[in-house]
Amino acid sequence: MLTACFALFFAMLAVCLASGWSVSWALAGGLAVFWAYGLWRGFSHRELWGMAWAKCQKSLIVVRIIALIGVITGLWRCGGVIACCIVWGVRLVTPRLFLVLAFILCAAFSYILGTSYGVSSTLGVILMALARSGGVDPTVAAGVVLSGVYFGDRCSPASSAASLVAAVTDTDLYRNVRQMLRTAALPTLLTLAAYLLLSFRHPLAQVDGTVLAALEGRFQLSWWTLLPAAVMLLLPLWKVPVQWAILASSAAAAVLAAAQGFRPGEILSAAWGGYWPEDGALRAVLSGGGVTSMAESYAIVILTGLYSGILEGTESLRPLSGRAEALAGRIGRFPAMAAVSTLCAAVLCNQAVTSMMGEQLLGRAYDDREELAMDIENSGILIAGLIPWSIACSIPLAMLGAGPGAIPYALLLWLIPLCYPFIKGRYYPGQPPTSKR
């Protein structure tokens, strides 16, 4: 019965992806399917709602962060922050190195801040605006940004994902970080080489002078215009929670918007519904943002929270533990972890839950807990970012205004899991594939 439920769920996802419909429809269908499965198992509607709501409550913090990101992207647009970055970026960035520089910048910022969402919604939005204004394929640019933001999301000491893996595997965070940097060295070099080639194929073209003139004519551009960006960068370095950093940056952008001549009502409108300039030259590069722009992301987070709560509460995935260990015995621990992570990310649509499930389903197959941590980091943390309907992928792409077509260009997320099996023996030699604790 459970297999049939999964098959039906994946069929709905396939239909949505093939037809271009929002995956939230498939997730809503999945909620109905797994709710029916829970009733079939003998649980009451009240019990199922308790399971679903308990999990959904925990995901509401993500909804709040996404809403704040919508606010900041709208206010950065009308405050002139993005306009300033486009005008100055065109003058400073070497056109034929744009994509490789975008990757390096996103990787550096994500390592400093430890957040894929924070970098996607700030630096990522700026780079996407610059790409669109300069004629770079936005699908390719979004893949490059996604690749860069996951560099730090995976291995930064400030990353919540890295801290979670260290906690569930009972390992030292900073030892894990050092190992992650070592195991990512070859894939990162390959990624840089590939993006260098892509940079020559997709150079930043000369931006239409009409666009630059319109930006400079509408906004007063100075170093003060970059204050909201500086606030967003510096506050997390001082251990200020990301929600407060976003609020502070949004407040600074609102003040700048007022100085740019926007009325209070227009500023509130940009925060809620986004900034939509009347000038046609500006509309192509500055439109978007706002709380409402993230509507699909809210739906995805809430729906996945509800139905994953039912799966967890009914212990529907527990029978997979024995099968996962048997799979590790046949094909090896890391390939089994990658397969389990792909299934969990596809079903549960959540990076954190995927990491925890990897430990729960395969933890007994490992003697070395650091090896377990590395296998999770090099599979589940990254694979979740490649599943189009997972919040680890869909939310950053929504911030960037891109679709699933960007995923093939997120090269680092592919290369680390593909390269790791060939270099793993250097770091964990002599470990039998199915050793028990």
Could you tell me how far the N terminus lies from the C terminus, measured between alpha carbons in angstroms?
33 Å
The gross shape turns out to be globular
The tally of beta strands, per DSSP, is 0
Q: Can you write the helix and strand succession as a string?
A: HHHHHHHHHHHHHHHHHHHHHHH
The largest sheet is: none
Class by alpha and beta content: mainly alpha
| Beta-strand residue percentage | under 5%
Radius of gyration, in Å, reads: 22 Å
- Average per-residue pLDDT, rounded, comes to 86
Give the low-pLDDT segments: 432-437
User: Roughly how much helix do the residues carry, as a percent range?
Assistant: over 70%
Total number of helices: 23
Structural overview:
It is a single chain. With 437 residues, the chain is mainly α. It is built from 23 helices and no strands. α3 crosses α14 and α17 runs antiparallel to α18. It is globular, with a radius of gyration of 22 Å. The protein starts with a helix and ends in a 10-residue tail after the last helix.
Topology:
Blueprint: H1 2-19, H2 23-40, H3 45-79, H4 81-92, H5 98-113, H6 116-133, H7 138-155, H8 160-169, H9 173-183, H10 185-201, H11 209-218, H12 227-237, H13 242-259, H14 264-273, H15 280-286, H16 295-313, H17 320-331, H18 333-348, H19 351-362, H20 369-377, H21 380-383, H22 391-400, H23 411-427
Helix pairs in contact: 1-2, 2-16, 3-6, 3-13, 3-14, 3-16, 4-6, 5-6, 5-7, 5-10, 6-7, 6-22, 8-19, 8-20, 10-23, 12-13, 16-22, 17-18, 18-19
